[in-house]
Inverse folding.
């Protein structure tokens, strides 16, 4: 499993939620005759090559973290399996280390949708380095280099990846809060 596999799986979860709620982005793609789950559209929205997306889907289906829908052929992520992996293996397989101070997009508990969940004792926030970022914080390498661009286009994906970073970076209390929040989001069905 590679780090971009998780990014792709969480994007698929985001697409499922957009489809269920018939959100504008979803309706716009469908009205244009495009399949939001196509490798071409995933490439456009994530900035990950079609080859890497195809390989990631193959790895995910062979590991059981996703399946192929028998009718549509679309990849279907297993929310429960994704959650188990993120909660129990993520920080060991994809550890995160804080780097130099940079401008970027807030992540972990500094992300807008999470910043009120915990009060931080420190002055520094974590950011994914990005040229248009307005926030100054300790840089964290995202799971894949195109994550900052992808999350600017998809708020749901942003929330999932920020929660994943909170689990990668947090102390026991922070990981507990992030785990509860991620569990409630992924298992809401």
């Amino acid at each position: 499993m590679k780090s971009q596999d998780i990014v792709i799986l969480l994007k698929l979860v985001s697409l499922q939620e957009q489809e269920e709620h018939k959100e504008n982005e979803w309706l716009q793609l469908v009205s244009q005759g495009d399949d939001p789950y196509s490798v071409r559209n995933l490439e456009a929205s994530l900035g990950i090559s079609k080859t890497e997306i195809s390989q990631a889907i193959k790895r995910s289906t062979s590991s059981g973290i996703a399946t192929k829908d028998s009718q549509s052929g679309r990849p279907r992520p297993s929310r429960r399996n994704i959650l188990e992996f993120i909660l129990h293996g993520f920080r060991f397989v994809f550890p995160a280390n804080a780097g130099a101070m940079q401008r970027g997009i807030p992540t972990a508990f500094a992300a807008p949708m999470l910043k009120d969940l915990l009060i931080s004792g420190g002055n520094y926030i974590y950011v994914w380095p990005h040229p248009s970022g307005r926030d100054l914080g300790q840089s964290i390498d995202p799971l894949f280099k195109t994550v900052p661009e992808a999350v600017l286009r998809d708020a749901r994906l942003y929330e999932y990846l920020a929660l994943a970073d909170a689990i990668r970076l947090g102390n026991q209390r922070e990981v507990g809060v992030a785990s509860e929040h991620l569990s409630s989001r992924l298992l809401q069905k």
